[in-house]
Amino acid sequence: MYPIPYLDLPPLGAAAGTVRLPGSKSISNRLLLLAGLSAGVTTLVDLLDSDDTRVMLDALRGLGCRIEQQGRHTRITGVAGKPAVLEADFFLGNAGTAMRPLTAALAVISTQNGGRYTLSGVPRMHERPIGDLVDALRALGVAVECLGNEGYPPLRLAGGSLLLDAPVRVRGDVSSQFLTALLLALPLAAGPRAPTLGTDGSSLPPEGASPPWGGPAAGRDVVIEVIGELISKPYIEITLNLLARFGIAVRREGWQRFTIPAGSAYVTPGEVHVEADASSASYFIALGALAGVDAPVRIEGVGAASIQGDIRFVEAAQAMGARVMAEPNALEVRRGAWPLKAIELDCNHIPDAAMTLAVMALYADGPSTLTNIASWRVKETDRIAAMATELRKLGAQVEEGADHIRVWPLAQFKPAAIHTYDDHRMAMCLSLAAFHTLKGAAPVPVRILDPKCVAKTYPDYFETLFGVVAADAAQIPVITIDGPTASGKGTLAAGVAQALGYHTLDSGSLYRVTALAARRAQVAADDEAGLAAVARGLHLQFEGTNVILDGVDVTERLRDEAVGAMASQISVWPQVRAALFDLQCGFRQLPGLVADGRDMGTVIFPQAGLKVFLTATPAARAERRHKQLISKGIPASLDSLRADLEARDARDKNRSTAPLKPAQDALLLDNSLLGIEASVQQVIAWWNARLPFDGSAGC
Ligand SMILES: Nc1ncnc2c1ncn2[C@@H]1O[C@H](COP(=O)(O)OP(=O)(O)O)[C@@H](O)[C@H]1O
Ligand SMILES: Nc1ccn([C@H]2C[C@H](O)[C@@H](COP(=O)(O)OP(=O)(O)O)O2)c(=O)n1
């Protein structure tokens, strides 16, 4: 995940490779609730790990479920429909898949155990309507109070008595999640009730409940009727499918009437595998259609056997020209028609994945129209408005209606800072606008603001994307920071890289590790050919900022002054420098690089977008190095450090190959009196001034 204010995507080219997607959010949260309501232990394999599932897990813990997580397995010990917790406040973030079903389940439970529960979320959650569910629950006899605006969370559930003689009626034309919520919760009311015993052993109704409080001993049929035309039917199919796996065989008459049979009780199936998220697959299906030119983009974890409605996004992508090969549990996607073919599509059956089509439409051969998408307006944000606004920033012509969007193709993209509205799908969809595969168009980058919003369903989305796309190396941004020893290059490079989500190259560590390996192999500091052979033969791995030599972490060893001194000596040899050239260039990877050393701007990355030459007075640098060593418990003398540092400066500056000197176009930064954070901010400001994004766009 990139927990940074913005992530810049350079122009992207071909895509190929395999992605393994995280588990489905819809399936994960439904399974969690069902497992929590069942008796006994349910093991969920490959459960999605995201904000929304964490919210649901926390709620289940709050109800008294035991949760154990180990590797790919999550074990949930359910409360058998009877949580002992009678009062609790649940904070559910912006997770609609937690808010709706938990509201229904806790409503029924509160009528049965006299419990008092409140459910709240982030401000956006309090703007997302839940009135249709509240109306249905009130008609059912539950005391539901809207604590803010009527028809919206936060809610208080305060018992009541269930009136089950007439069918429960719920609207189905705004969101199918209300029906899902009732289907998941009402088996609690259909099953046989064990009587509650008074202290004297007599059968008592729970406090606050009026008869009939428990229903007949054998249970009763619970009938749900849908008012209006039910939307997003595939999500109801998922709900029914998962209920069946927990032993609840709902009888369905068309899409209007659903009967939960008398005596129903949640029975854990033991272990359940969570299939990958079909909505998340849509970004990689689109990727294949846009950029799967030579080899396919292979998507594992979801395929033709999926129970998720969004798998039908495949048909939409095919209609736009994608070539898709579907296996039961995997998909392979390549570009077919190019440009893509414009479509006009009723997207009621794929509301979430359809957002991806709106961005694909930029690459089509005419205007594309997506209809029947009114539900977009009540999602994480008003997605029709948000999509129209952001596509227009890219330069596209967009028509927006109450329940449709029309997008015209774009010949030349504008660099844009894309707002994501705390909506994971906005971030993931709009990342596809970074592809520049249209003939004659100048490639431009895309800035995604608040990229961490993808954590809602796909925390590693961008890392996965970068794993399967290629970019022209010249398009991958590089910032170089050169300067003398102890000027703070490494510290500054790390700070800048962290702020931008970029990789780092500590080139000095490569000279240091060569020096260390040479010492071990007893190759002398003046044996140029021998040293170059050592450099070429290094077996290195990099784990974050740690350097692994021959399988051993040598990061700390590399900082020894003796190793540093030898590094300075051996770095004068042209053959050694040449031997390390390709290794250094290889660090230029998506989404960008901050490289520090002596010749980053002059020799290794002469085309870098920003070159900084960092200096500080010898006194300040000696002081810093002294502090650094003392803090690590390494004894050091300030005078000898300064003498050593000046000798090293002289050697680094005066060597004939790649001497230490500012590149002609480098910006000088003397940080003798400038703190670390201020130095980082200065470099970021210089960097942003060189980028084509509108600086006022929220970062
Ligand atoms: N701007 C600064 N002000 C004060 N101390 C700094 C500053 N930048 C870095 N330092 C400190 O100086 C020491 C040397 O920094 P380092 O990044 O290792 O230098 P280099 O990579 O140039 O050898 C570290 O202890 C670091 O925390
Ligand atoms: N790009 C580079 C990086 C380092 N070197 C050499 C010169 C330095 O004295 C050594 C060690 O570099 P390093 O950056 O780790 O050293 P300091 O932390 O600045 O003391 O390697 C180089 O010649 N070219």
UniProtKB/TrEMBL annotation:
Q: A Pfam family matched by this chain, by name?
A: EPSP_synthase
Biological role? Catalyzes the transfer of the enolpyruvyl moiety of phosphoenolpyruvate (PEP) to the 5-hydroxyl of shikimate-3-phosphate (S3P) to produce enolpyruvyl shikimate-3-phosphate and inorganic phosphate.
User: Any idea of its EC number?
Assistant: 2.5.1.19, 2.7.4.25
Tell me what gene encodes this: aroA
What is the designated name of this protein?
Answer: Multifunctional fusion protein
Assembly and oligomerization: Monomer.
Keywords from UniProt, A to Z, are: Amino-acid biosynthesis, Aromatic amino acid biosynthesis, ATP-binding, Cytoplasm, Kinase, Nucleotide-binding, Transferase
Query: Where is it located?
Result: Cytoplasm
